[in-house]
Design a protein that fits this description.
Distance between the termini: 63 Å
Number of strands: 8
Strand content: 5-15%
Largest sheet: 4 strands, mixed
Bound molecules: flavin-adenine dinucleotide
Number of helices: 12
CATH class of the largest domain: Mainly Alpha
CATH superfamily of the largest domain: Acyl-CoA dehydrogenase/oxidase, N-terminal domain
Order of helices and strands: HHHHHEEEEEEEEHHHHHHH
Radius of gyration: 22 Å
Structural class: alpha+beta
Strand order of the largest sheet: 1-4-5-8
Helix content: 40-55%
CATH architecture of the largest domain: Orthogonal Bundle
Number of domains: 3
């Protein structure tokens, strides 16, 4: 482990400054980044830097630490992942947020359900940053109740023709490959059994991507229109009719990675809050100090919680990812609330003071984390029913069952 740590130190130290060396109040760009509240006017530049960093990590065997060696992973375990997270948080590395959907949502489904060819083609490409992935699950009328989705794929010679609309698709405007869930059986009695997963080439004719501007001012997610799009047979991921199981691998991994700090998002906010507290004289206030320390403790817990699920039974592991997600997003909100309490009106009025108004986008964006990847209410339902064994919530009687 000591040797592994020094390898990571050597790799990062040769390329990036230490975080605290670049951290001065009033110096440089004061924008803040976070999972759902990106604050950058240079999206293409961010992605270029992220892909270059990812490529270097991949070539050094440090990109996909737990992945199988045959697909470009390092075949290491939770301890190395933990060690990497500890070392990387000391460095000012590029923000790899734009690559995470491909790595944390699409890749696990490909690994679990992909053909040998799909694995060999996609896994190294997603983990080296060569390909950017997106998740095409949600629709205007299908979010929490995902199995009610209406995008339809009908079988044709050599493949499928897809029609429908997806929405809230993060990074779809930058993605090369989309993990697309569509209905292949119209039988209303088998809502989840009639779904199939496809790996969609986002350049296919008939795919139209329109970014949606969010109240943060940025446009990181999109509407995706699918108009008679041809998808070849070899792009089916898993079994025809088996899309629900594939989707669950992706969703479970998405939740499990909510507190992931490969881009140092939370710790950077924590740093900036410390600077802010020092600048405005809050750093001596016991309440501020207590809440900042609480944020740090939550950051550390966030790092170890997913690993603690690795030895759990499948039922607990699936429900446990909901716990990871709830814990991580709650930590985000607590931190932003502290910034709000320190800044007060300075957070909503752009006075030109360094590092104050920048928090407004974080405040506007942080609540999206309660929705993305399955809402807080849905995570609590999952925990209640699967982990605690409480009675299932009453399900509404559907129209088609009434008849
Ligand atoms: C920042 C962000 C990024 C996203 N990225 C993607 C992406 O890349 N790909 C993708 O496919 N989707 C993405 N989504 C969509 C996300 O998965 C959905 O928004 C989410 O699943 C909720 O669905 P909905 O918006 O349709 O809300 P609804 O399902 O309509 O829910 C509305 C409200 O009702 C509550 N509710 C619904 N059902 C229940 C229930 N059974 N019990 C209790 N309360 C309930 C919900 O908690 C919520 O408060 C993203 C969303 C956000 C905010």
């Amino acid at each position: 482990m000591a040797e592994f740590r020094s390898r990571v130190e050597a790799f990062l130290g040769a390329r990036y400054p230490r975080r605290h060396e670049t951290l001065r109040h009033g110096q440089g760009d004061d924008s803040l980044v976070g999972a759902a509240f990106r604050d950058s006017d240079d999206e293409a530049g961010d992605l270029r830097r992220a892909r270059a960093y990812q490529r270097e990590l991949f070539d050094a065997g440090l990109a996909w630490l737990s992945g199988p060696v045959e697909y470009g992973g390092a075949g290491l375990g939770a301890a190395e992942r933990q060690a990497f997270a500890e070392v990387v948080r000391r460095y000012d590395v590029p923000d790899v947020n734009g690559l995470l959907v491909g790595q944390q949502i699409v890749a696990p489904a490909v690994l679990a359900h992909g053909s040998a060819d799909q694995r060999a083609r996609l896994l190294p490409a997603l983990w080296s940053g060569e390909l950017v992935g997106c998740q095409l699950f949600s629709e205007p009328d299908a979010g929490s109740d995902l199995a009610s989705l209406r995008t339809r794929a009908r079988q044709v010679d050599g493949g499928w023709r897809v029609d429908g609309q997806k929405v809230w698709s993060s990074g779809a405007h930058l993605a090369h490959v989309g993990e697309l869930l569509a209905r292949t059986s119209p039988d209303p009695a088998s809502r989840s059994r009639g779904l199939t997963m496809f790996l969609l080439d986002m350049e296919s004719p008939g795919v139209t991507v329109r970014p949606l501007r969010q109240m943060t001012g940025t446009a990181h997610f999109c509407e995706v229109f699918l108009d008679d799009v041809f998808v070849p047979d070899d792009a089916v991921l898993g079994e025809v009719g088996g899309g629900w199981a594939v989707a669950n691998v992706s969703l479970s991994s998405e939740r499990d990675n909510f507190g992931d700090e490969s881009a140092n998002l939370f710790i950077r906010l924590l740093d900036r809050l410390l600077l802010l507290g020092q600048e405005v004289g809050a750093a001596e206030d016991p309440d501020f100090r207590d809440r900042l320390a609480d944020g740090y403790v939550r950051h550390v817990v966030n790092q170890v919680l997913p690993a603690s699920l690795e030895t759990a039974t499948p039922e607990v592991a699936t429900a446990g990812t909901s716990l990871v997600k709830l814990f991580a997003t709650d930590a985000d909100r607590r931190l932003v609330q502290l910034a709000l309490d320190v800044l007060g009106p300075a957070l909503v009025a752009d006075t030109g003071a360094w590092g104050t108004y920048a928090w407004s986008r974080v405040l506007l964006g942080v609540h999206a984390t309660r929705i993305a990847g399955g809402t807080d209410e849905i995570q609590r339902n999952i925990l209640a029913e699967r982990a605690l064994g409480l009675p299932r919530e009453p399900r509404p009687v559907r129209e088609d069952r009434r008849r």
